[in-house]
Amino acid sequence: MDSIGFAKAMADETRQKIMQLLCCEWLCVNDIVERLGEVRQPTVSHHLSILREAELVHMRREGKQSFYSLNQDAVAVCCGMLMQDFAPEKLALDIGG
Amino acid sequence: MDSIGFAKAMADETRQKIMQLLCCEWLCVNDIVERLGEVRQPTVSHHLSILREAELVHMRREGKQSFYSLNQDAVAVCCGMLMQDFAPEKLALDIGG
DNA sequence: CCGACATATAGATATATATCAATATAAAAA
DNA sequence: TTTTTATATTGATATATATCTATATGTCGG
Predict the structure, then answer these.
(1) CA neighbours within 13 Å on the CB side: how many for A68?
(2) pLDDT tens-digit map of B49-89
(3) Would you list the domain boundaries of chain B?
(4) Does B25 touch chain A (CB under 8 A)?
(5) Does the domain at residues B3-96 carry the CATH identifier 1.10.10.10?
């Protein structure tokens, strides 16, 4: 995952809403569709595939359902990458004192 | 600055290159154009206006030139925001232990 | 004021992306 | 096997975005 892929994956409101939903629990696609309320299932599936590609979500199949949850580790790593690339002095402050 | 505005501002390769150039020094627009090499001046101006809008760069006029530099504080704040929103457990680890 | 230079803006165009309806795929139930 | 349910994929379309050329704006020197 590079910083551009991460930024692109995050650069959409619907995707961020989905990520919020998945932040601290596993949800199946239909649950996500219902909680979003205004977005159709294929659209949600599309966003999930982008988040999967970016490895920002975990996925687990269970029968006919797919469960997703947020990959917080990946988010943390990517944020750290952005900090290193674009706020190195702030990072130095954190480490040094 | 919200997390979507930040992600959108970061979600372009040319913009990230510009941010790299401005990371640790002030450059005028023409210097940026020359260092990028393959991008025309109006395109660079356009990207700079997006970065300005997102408050990710500082700007200073000097005669006919405009100098830009990266706002590392803003980057750090936005990365922190992403962490809080999308990796709260990782953040808790950092704080708690 | 006029010309030269630096940057910004306008307008046009091509590409990327988000969304939906329709359909395919896969798994469980009848 | 047929039907039902859950998710993924396809194809179409509208919007957003990146880029360019041409031009406007703003600043300095003569």
Answers:
(1) 25
(2) 999 999 999 999 999 999 999 999 999 999 999 999 999 99
(3) 3-96
(4) no
(5) yes
